[in-house]
Amino acid sequence: MSKKQERILTGIFLFFVCVQLAHFVHSGWYTYAHTARVPRPPKGETFRIALPALINTTTRIFHLADTSITAAAFDLITGFSALYLLYLMTVDLPLEEPDRPKDRALKILLFLAIIQFPLAWVVPWQRPETMPSALFLAFSLFCLANIEKNRMWALPLLAAVLIQTFVRTDVPLIFGIATAFVGLLTLVKRGSQGKFRASLDYIVIGSLTALIAAGIQVYLHILYPQDSLDIQFWPNFSFHNLEILTIILAPFVSFALLLIVYRPSLTAVEKVAIGSALLYLPMYFTFGLASEARIYVPFLLIMCMVTARVSASFLSARFDSAT
Q1: Residues β-bridged to residue 48
Q2: Could you report the per-residue pLDDT of 177-197, keeping only the tens digit for each?
């Protein structure tokens, strides 16, 4: 099978996954709105004002009677785009050794299987910014992967940061910190002299991303002084919340154990993905309810890319040694 055929087939599969997700999003909001008698989708808050405004505007322009239809359409578009970009990085990020066809196929199969874990948590607690935030992370990682070849990729990345800060400010803030941290670690690491330029790029881009996100968050606090952050740290220690958090993280904790034992070499992009997920976890536990897993879904999705790549490499090596 050629790469073109592979991408078409995988794209079709991902598209139908996202169609099903969009259907459940629409059905979920329809049921929730009629049982709880609340507007759908919810209004914007301090961290998220862009998507509700865009959805309401689109609904008025196209004279739709139900905003949840528009929300589902945005989920379909952004969800498919995010998953397709993550699939491309799963199979196309460079490795120390060239991929064999069976290695590439194994990566795809593992990726398609692993993404089912986070996608299962999108509904019924779906908000309109969850999948767009996943698209931001996927697109940002895609830009980082290409920056070493062409620094102009920094421009669309920073433009995405500016847009995302009005969708969910916390996501680009953590992503920027993780990017700068990975660049700094690579810079100070011995034997990394040849990576000085790439490390400096990561530090600059990460710092700019974090500063833009923090600056706009301050602006939003000034614009909406009545909004405040609720600390959920102690409520999250309830059995119900800890149970759900354990179920959410179990597949990826298993992967973390594989990383500790196997110690694979990781690309800078993979390190940024892991760093972002790790850094966001304490923020999620402190400011969000652990039972609302959709908060953490964008970071779980980018971890699927890393998990599929590393697991495929590990399994392929084991298969080769056994034959």
Answers
A1: 45
A2: 999 999 999 888 755 555 778
Sequence-ordered list of residues with C-beta below 8 angstroms from that of 11, at least 6 positions apart, any chain: 84, 87
| 44, 232, 323 from 138: Cα distances, Å | 23, 28, 36
pLDDT tens column, 37-74:
444 444 444 456 677 777 777 878 877 777 778 888 88
**By residue range, what is the domain housing residue 97?**
3-322
The span from the CA of 210 to the CA of 140, in Å, is 13
CA distance 225 to 68: 28
Rounded to an integer, what is the distance from CA 139 to the centroid of its chain? 9
Q: Note the pLDDT tens digit of each residue in 76-129.
A: 999 999 999 999 999 988 765 567 788 889 999 999 999 999 998 887 666 778
The pTM assigned to this predicted structure is 0.90
Residue pair 26/128 in contact (Cβ under 8 Å)? The answer is no
Residue pair 120/284 in contact by the 8 Å Cβ criterion = no
Angstrom CA distances, 210 to 170, 178, 215, 216, stand at 9, 9, 8, 10
